[in-house]
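Appendix B, Record 12. Input sequence as logged:
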Amino acid sequence: MPAYRLRILRCRATRGGVDVHSEWLQADLADKAITQAKLVAERMLAGAAGIAMLSTESERMMWSLRRGIPKPLGLV
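Logged structural output:
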């Protein structure tokens, strides 16, 4: 079964900096991995700004979420 890596960077509202979370998700289809990633990201980013990224074992980006953080300059 393929493994997908979920990384979440959650901004600390009061202390500054970020908390980093990383975990491997197991799913037989990419769509199922994305669904799992969305659930984990929603829970971990509840009430906080941050970024979630899901990639394959070969580091190909599959899905991402940006909440409360502006896009870097120069990116569309």
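The chain has one helix and four strands.
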